[in-house]
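Progress report, Aim 2. The chain analyzed during this reporting quarter is listed below.
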Amino acid sequence: QVQLQESGPGLVKPSQTLSLTCTVSGGSITTNYYYWNWIRQPPGKGLEWMGAIADSGSTHYSPSLKSRTSISRDTSKNQFTLQLNSVTPEDTAVYYCARKGMGTSYDYWGQGTQVTVSS
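Predicted structure tokens for the chain:
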């Protein structure tokens, strides 16, 4: 059973960098044919895909967030990390990490972590 757990600060000030880590257990982030994703849900809105890191380490980003987003990984810790720069209150959301197989749907999700951007 694969498990994902998000961690990071729940409050970030405007203009700062939001940094979240997803720790994966029960499966390796280097396993072939999987993407490891960051997805968020602002209050009252739908899910928004932010980006992903593939088994190979290649990264893919939403065009609308690409200029502010960076996803990296630490294979020794089986973790991948999201950094979102220059945050504004509009970045307030529940942030999820999730696994998606190539050509398939999301099969494992973290429980989500609330991040509020406020001074």
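The first strand starts at residue 3 and ends at 7. The radius of gyration is 13 Å. These observations will guide the mutagenesis work planned for the next reporting period.
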